[in-house]
Design a protein that fits this description.
24 strands, binds adenosine-5'-diphosphate, 9 helices
């Protein structure tokens, strides 16, 4: 589920743009609310808890349209709060179902069929976000076990505030207005209560009003119902220079039954001064054992948050070229890698530049950016094509631009780092080399293509050398779509950078057709290795 929140500058007619070519997603639900004093905090700003409740109920209504029965929130992705919203403003909330995963919902759901290009992309990205959710806990464990030194030991600061001073515990009784007609407590209501205790804990660090900046993605571990007593506990886990992390945990009990863990969340707060600039915060002195562990974990989460913010939320054109790769930001770089290729794949304004021997070259020019794609059909099953193209070391068998290719790191089953060297194209020039992250993904269903996404990264172990000019790939790769059981459509994409342009510009200008010979050679290579044993996952090579 994706919830999008927009605000109007003032009260008045609400205009919401959501249609693409007159089409409206049948699961789309819109809610518009005027921010009244009863929705605001003492500063006249919409309380985040109220906003979370609205977002949650809109998302649930959208999920319900799809599932045909009432739904409750299972998990929420990261939420960032950019602006505060004043009393009198109108808030427009739009929710629609991007993708249904059978295992994450309690009913067997029919599949969502994406209709527009944008929907197709959101649909595919939902799978990537899900991967990230599932792997989040693993990244924290890795970071903590591999780099305690890097994260820094708890230091003793003289003027540190004892964490204990920020501890808050509060109880709420779940009444009918807090639950849906099937007596399940609204997730948004629980989030609102959690936000409330977290805000109190945050304000105790330096006795000042705190502003919520972000909530890490979290999931509900179990349901809660009318009659539950919800115990909400919060404490400041760590304070950084300008922000602090508050952890909140929600537990439920009824009568003498054992306590159930409902949810835990981590929220980042700032304290703003009169110019609305973040104030420098005092340090925190964690409590022994659990407090110290949470203090360290908060540092790991901060690193992940920064990586995510830097890598994911950047618009594609703003992503710096080579980003440093390391195991802790691997997930986000792969997400960025895959989503960039999917974005290119979803574009509809490609222009056919040239066609030769059934190999087509298309270009797309936009905002000072030139992309090209080469497309052809081959009579090889999609899976075999995918396996053969996934191993970049074999590309030199058909691509003249690949001189050498070695595996540097196999990060996991689906992500590999390579060093690729290409020959010099002009006499006297040096050859180029690239450090590439290759992310390969199998399709989730028949509408999804196989995908091999490539982008440059930097690695401290592989700095540029004297012998080569270091080249950079912004976004490139293959999609392979199964046309029939033995025919697949291969599309190769590349977002041209100055380093890549000389290889392709004469083709685009129609002066040569190197693309056609390369891709005919690719087709021959695939044909020759149609039944090859080595078309197996990299690990088994
Ligand atoms: P963890 O202890 O592994 O962080 P929990 O789910 O137990 O995970 O708790 C989540 C967060 O809730 C903690 O990081 C902490 O900030 C807060 N919290 C947990 N228990 C308490 C408590 N007894 N008092 C105050 N805050 C708590």
């Amino acid at each position: 589920m994706t919830s999008e929140v927009k605000t109007d500058p003032a009260q008045g007619p609400v205009s919401v743009q959501s249609c693409e070519e007159g089409y409206r997603n049948p699961t789309e639900v819109k809610m518009s609310q005027i921010v009244l004093p009863c929705h605001a905090n003492h500063r006249g700003e919409l309380s985040v808890g109220q906003l979370l409740k609205w977002m949650d109920s809109t998302a649930c209504l959208s999920a319900e349209r799809h599932a045909g029965c009432s739904c409750i929130t299972a998990s929420v992705d990261d939420i960032h709060f950019e602006h505060t919203i004043g009393v009198g403003k109108v808030v427009n909330i739009i929710a629609k179902v991007n993708r249904a995963f059978t295992s994450s919902m309690e009913v067997q759901l029919k599949q969502v069929i994406p209709h527009t290009q944008t929907e197709q992309m959101e649909y595919s990205l939902a799978a990537e976000r899900r991967r990230m959710r599932l792997i989040h806990a693993e990244i924290i464990t890795d970071l903590l076990s591999s780099s305690t030194a890097q994260l820094g030991e708890c230091q003793e600061y003289q003027d540190a505030v004892p964490a204990e001073r920020t501890r808050v515990e509060s109880v709420e009784l779940v009444l009918p207005p807090h639950a849906n007609h099937q007596v399940s407590t609204f997730g948004g209501q629980i989030m609102a209560w959690m936000e409330n205790v977290a805000t109190i804990a945050a304000s105790r660090l330096c006795n000042a009003h705190s502003t919520l900046r972000s909530i890490d993605m979290f999931h509900f571990r179990g349901p809660s119902h009318i009659g539950d007593r919800l115990v909400l506990k919060a404490i400041v886990n760590n304070a950084f220079k300008h922000s602090m992390e508050v952890g909140v945990c929600a537990e439920a009990y009824q009568g003498g039954e054992p306590t159930r863990h409902i949810n835990s969340a981590f929220m980042t707060f700032e304290v703003l001064d009169s110019d609305r600039k973040p104030r420098t915060l005092p340090r925190i002195r964690p409590e022994p054992v659990d407090g110290k562990r949470r203090y360290q974990e908060a540092i790991a989460r901060k690193k992940i948050r920064l990586d995510r913010k830097y890598i994911i939320s950047c618009k594609q054109t703003e992503v710096p070229l080579s980003v440093p790769w390391d195991i802790s930001n691997q997930m986000y770089l792969s997400y960025n890698n895959v989503s960039a290729l999917k974005l290119m794949d979803a574009r509809s304004n490609w222009v056919l530049a040239s066609e030769k021997h059934k190999v087509r070259l298309y270009t797309l020019e936009e905002n000072h950016m030139l992309c090209f794609k080469v497309e052809m059909n081959v009579s090889i099953p999609a899976e075999q094509t995918f396996h053969l193209l996934s191993d970049l070391r074999r590309r030199k068998e058909w691509d003249l631009h690949y001189d050498e290719c070695e595996v540097i790191i196999e990060a996991d089953d689906e992500d590999t780092l390579y060093r690729v060297a290409t020959p010099c194209i002009r006499k006297g020039d040096k050859g180029k080399d690239f450090i590439l992250l290759a992310s390969r993904r199998k399709p989730c269903d028949a509408r999804d293509p196989y995908l091999i996404a490539l982008r440059s990264v930097t690695l401290p172990t592989h700095p540029p050398t004297e012998d080569y000019t270091r080249g950079e790939v912004l976004c490139a790769g293959f999609t392979i779509l199964e046309e029939s059981s033995c025919v697949s459509k291969i599309t190769y994409y590349n977002q041209a950078t100055p380093g890549v342009l000389p290889y392709i510009s004469t083709d685009i200008a129609g002066l040569s057709s190197g693309f056609s010979s390369s891709f005919s050679a690719c087709s021959d290579f695939l044909e020759a290795n149609k039944d090859s044993e080595s078309a197996l996952p990299l690990q088994s090579l």
